[in-house]
From TrEMBL:
Keywords: Methyltransferase, S-adenosyl-L-methionine, Transferase. The keyword Methyltransferase applies. SMART domains: N2227. This is carnosine N-methyltransferase. Belongs to the carnosine N-methyltransferase family. It comes from the Eukaryota. The keyword Isomerase does not apply. GO terms for molecular function: carnosine N-methyltransferase activity. InterPro entries: CARME (IPR012901), SAM-dependent_MTases_sf (IPR029063). GO terms for biological process: methylation. Gene3D superfamilies: Vaccinia Virus protein VP39. PANTHER family: CARNOSINE N-METHYLTRANSFERASE (PTHR12303:SF6). Its EC number is 2.1.1.22.
Length: 262
């Protein structure tokens, strides 16, 4: 819960006075995965909407959210088929009961949790999504983009003026090496952290706070090998509306050169 706990603390700081408003804050969580963060956000009393593209994630999250009736109802063995870096056989074969919490008991009230299937850019760039959310939370998400600038545009589009963007994660651009395993070319725009923050500023975001956090990812705490990212964590506020500039039309190519004779 290191990543999620830090995000939840920032949400509570951001919306500490929300009880004086006419409705709970609306929080969008793209790249929601198995929806655990969505459940934790809804448990705070906020309206949480998760967005996920992967059918594998959607099927698993739907099962846990809608078809579990008690804690530790099922048992899985997540490390059984990995043979590297185990200290003991028992570590490799150990069981993990799921779910550790019941989503229905955590969610603070009806209508606070929803999931939306589909591509983030396609779904949330729609006109009816403009200014719909008070906060966008991206956790290990922005580097999944073909073009991270497009993600920033859509985040800005969905946020109300004065809305908050909370981000935590590295920049392991998922499409950077696509040419090594795909036969068709894939767009991949890979910006540095500095460039992303500058682009966000140009789009009307103001950086409120930032820090680097050492965050484990897909961690087996008993393994001899662990992945730890020095992840970027920030909170930004949308201070002005921003519209993508109209694309400049590309002039037609000159006609082919033809040599003439006098």
């Amino acid at each position: 819960m290191l990543s999620y706990g830090r995000i939840l603390d920032e949400l509570k700081t951001t919306f500490k006075d929300w009880s004086n408003t006419h409705r709970p804050p609306r929080v969008l969580i793209p790249g929601a995965g198995l929806a655990r963060l969505c459940v934790e956000v809804a448990a705070l009393g906020y309206e949480a909407q998760g967005n996920e593209f992967s059918y594998f994630m959607l099927l698993a999250s739907s099962f846990i959210l809608n078809h579990t009736s008690e804690r530790h109802q099922f048992t899985v063995h997540p490390w059984m088929h990995t043979n590297c870096n185990h200290l003991t056989d028992a570590d490799q074969l150990r069981a993990v009961p799921v779910p550790d919490v019941l989503p229905g008991e955590l969610v603070a009230g009806p209508g606070l949790l929803s999931m939306c299937a589909g591509d983030f850019v396609e779904v949330y760039s729609a006109p009816d999504m403009r200014g719909l959310f008070d906060c966008v939370v991206t956790c290990f998400f922005i580097d999944t983009a073909h073009n991270v600038l497009r993600y920033l545009e859509v985040i800005s589009h969905t946020l109300t003026l004065g809305g908050t963007w909370i981000n935590l994660g590295p920049l392991l651009y998922h499409w950077a090496d696509a040419h090594t395993y795909l036969t068709t070319p894939e767009l991949s725009v890979e910006l540095s952290l500095e460039d992303i923050k500058e682009a966000a500023g140009a789009m009307g975001f103001r950086l409120v706070r930032e820090e680097s956090l050492d965050v484990p990812y897909m961690a087996d705490y008993r393994s001899m090998y662990k992945t730890v990212y020095q992840a970027a964590f920030w909170r930004m506020v949308k201070e002005r509306e921003w519209e993508p500039q109209a694309q400049i039309a590309t002039p037609p190519p000159p006609p082919p050169y033809r040599r003439t004779h006098a």
